[in-house]
Known about the structure:
Blueprint: H1 13-31, H2 53-78, H3 83-107, H4 112-115, H5 119-134, H6 144-164, H7 179-197, H8 202-219, H9 235-239, H10 241-259, H11 263-284, H12 297-320, H13 328-335, H14 337-354, H15 367-390
Helix pairs in contact: 1-2, 1-12, 1-13, 1-14, 1-15, 2-7, 2-10, 2-12, 3-5, 3-7, 5-6, 5-14, 7-10, 8-10, 10-11, 10-12, 11-12, 13-15, 14-15
Amino acid sequence: MDQQQPKQSIRIRSMDVMRGMTLFLMLFVNDIFAPGVPKWMLHTEADVDGMGLADWVFPGFLFMVGMAVPYAVAAREKMGESMGLIFFHIVSRTLSLILIGVLILNGGRVDAILTGMSSFLWLGLLYLCIFLVWNRYPTTSGNQALFKGMRLLGVLGICYLAYCFKAAEGKGLEIGWWGILGLIGWGYFAAATTFVLSRGRLSIVGCFWLLFLVLNILSQTAFKLHIPIIGDYLGVLLSGNVPCIVLAGTIIGILIKRYAATPKLLLRWMLIIGILWLVGGFALRPWFILSKIHGTPSWALLCCGISLLLLLVIYYVIDIRKYHKGIFVFEEAGKNSLTTYLAPDLIYFICWGLQIPLFFYKQSDNMLLAVGGSLLWAFAMLWYAILLKKINIYLKL
Length: 397
């Protein structure tokens, strides 16, 4: 079971499709106007035992981040990269995600008077700089000097925005909870590092998944692990919750990569593991409520089980039965996840800053208008990201 993973060039289309679907739902639940919709679509309050659609979406995406790790490492190995170079890429990608996440998180704290610009303008300029720095520019054109200049302009812009940033009472940038992209960065680092150092051995990856699950359980008790000084910075790893979810995806990625040629056996394993995760989540529920806000282990296991069983269905339909109708927009969005997630925010900032009434559908007294408007918005944003990629606006860390 622990032999080195064979190199494969086959792309599992269901992975991109499910990633695109989770992005669609992330855009939907982020846009939806809470007073006008059913509670099951929204986040459950922190101390309430339960979960709605919005409580699964982000861990669903984390699960897919972990699934992609074995394929991403294999692709770099195929290009001839050494393990040292691959690990350097993991670290640089992690730091990029954390940096972007922290900066975006602080955007809502901008004091317009002390900073010299509104929060919308600061965030708008930040997003513009992010695209300048991390855009994948064409490598075949003769404009490489221009592209390097644009990337340098983005770096200088981020430095300036960080320098002039001031929150209330003159406070500077804060780490907080790292932001969505920061959490993804920490989870990706845990999974990718584990996979590389273990050389993809399923038993070792499984042991690290169990370690992070135990850390997640301890984090909800008086035995919570804390390391002086650096503990505040390593909190996401020490709490175990996010790494546990991402590594669960990595385990399934290894299994799919190994047993893709025997789909019946693979589906059987996926079904068994998915059910075990669901059972584990409910078994822990008497001691730890289902809570996304608190990041409980019962919630993590339940989300992993839901993600895997949903993937099982999508994998069966798309990769085994070869039914591909209607998947284009989700598949393309899944291949371009960072752009799909970030690009819509620029429209928010422009509309809010200029008071353009684009979001008229956010009505508390009309559920159909609120839900329908957010669904159309999310779907339109998938196409928006696809169109951006066609004109070479495409984020790649």
